[in-house]
Amino acid sequence: MKLNLFGGFLKQKADSVLGIDIGSSSIKVVQISKKGSQAVLDTYGELSLGPYGNVSVGRSVRLSPEKIAEALTALITEKEVGIKAKVAGIAVPFESSLMTTFSIPESASKELDAVVPLEARKYIPVPISEVTIDWSIVPSHKESTTDDIVKTEVPHPKIEKEIEVLLVAIHNDILQAYKQIATDSKLDVRFFEIEIFSTLRAIVDNEGAPVMIIDMGATNTKVYILERGVVRASHTINFGAQDITQAIATGLNMPFEEAEVLKRDIGLGQTTSGTDIAKMVEVPLGRIFSQANRIMFNFVKRYNTPLKQVLLVGGGSAIKGIDAYATNMLKTETVMANPFSKLNTPAFIDDVLARTGPEFVVAVGLALRALREVS
């Protein structure tokens, strides 16, 4: 079967669609439409969740589905944002899911609906009735694309006449919370997709050379290494943008909100008084990239294949100068990912979109899938 990732059956076609990325510190929304053969950017917007939990803008916050729906509704009804679409896809955090691969005899491929749920019990640490599962046959090397498959780092022996199956699972309680958000927001949500799939669709080409993606969130940083659309390694680092902002706030004795603005505007440069921000954030930033460097080293050592490039994504990467810092730390070309390059956009906002692109990677990837499915 085709991997559906918790999607429902499509209803009527839609002129415009939404991609919705609900993070721990903000919600990002992208609306696109199709004109001819091109995907066109209609509008996009972001709303900080901190004020909904009585904490500072930029801080991570745990909110109820009702509060998240309230914030999402405020964003999509904001006149300045100009959201019109109701059809949408919503991302599920990588850490809220389970992904693995396993092998089954080729002869069982015609009975996947019966075989996979039985096999899944070996890999899912809770009763199978408590999760929603989905699966897909892993394409051969030549067939694989970023829309077809994401393979986790689980080694399997080469056994003749066996096929490999990707298993994806998410707890029903988590899925139900996202469904409630969709209902309360009065949106026609057609699917829920684990964020890594959206990321791959938005920024990764199905080329041979491996690349690393560093996804910096508010509370943690996710690191993936991909080769030909297949995830060879995935790790979570328990440091994020919030730690960097706090280091600035503490070092300069200023409110968190002001430090957040300073981080984005000055980044790793110097303040007007000559204070070196890079030295101030050396501990949290150094921990993130030293761990990323270790992940890269282990990959190169294991597969004897150098990385082609590092892509920075996520709202936490909105730090001026971080790409140069990462290039120096990782000794590999590091660039800010720009998912908007896959869309037709007004030329006069290209510079703005290039700066904000890393924050909207997941939302763009979701919107691209939604547009493909309703077209």
From TrEMBL:
Recorded hits in InterPro entries, A to Z, give: ATPase_NBD, FtsA/MreB, PilM
Transmembrane ranges, per UniProt, are none
Q: Which domain of life is it from?
A: Bacteria
Q: Which SUPFAM superfamilies match?
A: Actin-like ATPase domain
Looking up PANTHER family in the UniProt record yields: CELL DIVISION PROTEIN FTSA-RELATED, ETHANOLAMINE UTILIZATION PROTEIN EUTJ
> Which NCBIfam families does this entry report, sorted A to Z?
pilM
The identity of this protein, by name, is SHS2 domain-containing protein
- Biological source species: Candidatus Zambryskibacteria bacterium CG10_big_fil_rev_8_21_14_0_10_42_12
